[in-house]
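2024-03-11 09:14:02 INFO queue: dequeued item AAA family ATPase, len=956
2024-03-11 09:14:02 INFO validating residues
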Amino acid sequence: MGQSSRTIFERESELATVDEALGELTGLRRDGAEPSDRPRGALLAFAGRAGIGKTTLLAEVRRRAATRGCTVLSARGGEQEQRVAFHVARQLLQPQLAGSAETDLRASLGSWYDIVGPALGLCAPTDGAPPDQQGLRDGLDWVLTHLAVLRAPMVLVLDDAHWADPESLSWLAAFAPRAEQLPLLVVVAYRPDELPDHAESFRGLPGRAGGRPLDLEPLSAAAVAGLARETLGAHADDAFCRECWAVTAGNPFETVELIAKVRDRGLTPTETGAHLLRDLAAAVKGSGLVARLERLGTSTVRFAWACAVLGTEIHPLLAAAVAGLGHEEAADAADALRGARILTGADTLEFVHPLIATAVYRAIPPGIRVALHGQAAWCVINDGHGPSAAARHLLETHPDGDNWVVQQLRAAAEETLRAGAPDAARSYLARALREPPPYEDRAAVLYELGSASLLTEPATTVNHLRAALEEPIADAHLRQHIVYRLSQVLAHSDRLAEASDTLAREIRVTDDARVKLRMVAEQFMWDAFRADEPDHPSRSRRLTRLADRLSGRDLTERYIIGLRTWDAVLRGEPAHVALHHAERALAGGLGWAEPDRGFEVPVLVALAFMYADRPGRTEELFAAGIADFERQGWRGAHLSFAYTLLAYVRYRRGRLSEAQDFVMAGLRLAERVGPGTPAHWYAVGILIEVLLARGRITEAAQVAEDYSFGAPFPAAVVFPDAQTVHGELLLARGRTKEAAEELAAAGRRLEPRGMRNPAWCPWQLHLARAESHDTPGRAVATALEAVARARQFGTPSAIGQALRTAAEVSSGSARIKYLEESVAHLERSPAAYELACALVSLGTELRRTGRPRDAAEHLYRGLDAAVQCSADGLAETARDELAAAGLRPRRLHSTETDTLTSRERTVATLAAEGRTEPEIARELHMEEPTVVRLLSAVYRKMGTEITGLASTLKPT
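2024-03-11 09:14:37 INFO prediction written
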């Protein structure tokens, strides 16, 4: 539809929608309505075929936004730049941040500097592990949110979204729905038939069109006539204008170009000249455009080809170098192309329309096109733009055994991977492998290719790493890293036996003692997680002998000592033994984000403190570990595990509401990673445990059904043990026979492996309850065996829980005896929920045996404790028992709300209104984990749930 200075025909409804959105964004309503108290963002999506006027419409959006004082971020996808990672994100955000001193930039981005800086081209990647893709997206979310608030009102405009690079487009498609909660208007335009699969969400994003894009239609005959007369004069007659409309089918781009040709040729716009329009229209596109270009001369054609290869934002000197032209010759060619309405711009060139760029590019003979891409790669490197800028050109060249190409692609892959774009890195390395690399470098390229696929395609990673091991490898260090990485990805793919076997084979042929020790440590770790390990007692003995000899002088030794800690917990050795080894493992440092190491051992050491009744120390270690993850930008599976297991710690402390918040945060992160992963098993199992403790049995059963939580159970050991949790759920639903079978099967699986600690896996306790319905004698024996094991471990929580179960399945005076001892132990433990259960059980038993005064004391205490724990079902049971005893529950008095900080009060107020954590985070511009932590502080201080605070909290 021409330049923005031209009248825009038949887009009144679209522009009215834009004006309405801008009005709500800025508070300047054109309809005279009162502006809202709070600026409201929105998403507008325009869809239409090539040439329909999307670019002109978006130019008008930018102009109107600027006149209203909006900050405008603008980007455009390019057909040639689709393989350049974060190309669009850099166009949008770099101008807002570049030019600042590093100190200012670090202050502005804070902890996100090292995560998003490389992706946006603001700094070089760090030497540490790259961020995961979710962490990077969270970082980009934070940057855009921060800018939207700081420079509000803001308008983000993305043209040709169908050509945006996958990394940027996936991020924006996920972020766009949040615009409505920010002072941000997002406007995108794309060709619907060319939108890639990873951006399908754009088709249904919530926006002003009721969840669908606004489709742009061709111009009517009247609009084409108006456009013709505006350019050519009022004397353009009806027959001429009708023919203009007929030959262009109302396509705005073709119409504008046709009318420009008429004007340039000096044709009279009347019926007598209308018969020439069809030939002129043909010259606007396709073969006609190519023929017109060829008439401009060989040098001009070559310069146009070079520009088409370079894509967008074309620098004339670089285009001249690619075309092989001198400065003056290139300048003449650029002038000719501007005159022919093929190129526009001066210091930076671009094609007048993407349709022209596509036509020119496709007209380049294939052999010449490949050569030009090769020349472009060399010129880009020579111009100082680096291997990442050259890589997209090298992807278009033919393999030729050129080691320079291999080295550039490997360098580009490393840079791109560290910036957080593994898919792009993988494409570069796959191309390097086809070059092919020198024989002696092949294993290294396969290793790099496998590493690039690690988080997204683990099966592919296994294939590449196994292929690398089959190559001759002169560098022992490289071979060791291949083995470590292969065992890691096998283990994380639930193929623990293969991971262990891979290490075992390498241990036999490794001469270096320290390397062998590292591999032994890795093998011990994966075997510790194997549910099908054939000889656990033998491994345990070997691990004990080895760990006792080590001093912990390096990380490998501390990992082995940490594994010894966990083995002691699983086997139920006295808790002080486990704690002794845990402190040894931590003495020299045990970071959660060590390069080339997993986080499993530090997590196991931290959890050992929890099982040994020192959950405060566990939470300290988890806080440090989560900080490590967040600094690295690991916000996918790593952070999911951390939040999920932190929820488990809160659950065991009896802080059930907090536990549910954390496990839901962990589950949301796990769902980003993908279904069926270990992160899912952990999160769903813990969520079911928490719901059962809160008395929400129906909800727990629904969670199990929604997530297919049942057999077959994972090959890896997870905690809480998935099969045991499933049995507990069956028991809670009254399916006692099925529960007994499931729990007995869990015991048959765990017993041979020496996993005998009921503090770690209480399968015996639940089995005893299930057996009590049909075989009460066996139930008592099962419970007393669990009590003996708990006494061997020696923690008050384990002993108290086991004794409560023994009381439940016993009869007569033994019940009260066991319950009184259970309460005495649990009062010395951090297990608040277990104490509440024991108190209510003891009070109930005392009432039934005719001791109402003693019963009341324990029932009141149990009710208070149950409410503090948010154990709704247990609290209701306590109230029923008090009512049966003729007593009324005491009114509970929460801590006064003035103990809350202003941030805690604000967060709690929004939660009391029914807002979810993500909604609160967006509204207050906080990170979601911060919201969860603030809510947890409120629960702790108030001693009640947020839903109970609505009447006491006042907005501030």
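2024-03-11 09:14:37 INFO annotate: The CA atoms of residues 413 and 425 lie 4 Å apart.
2024-03-11 09:14:38 INFO item closed
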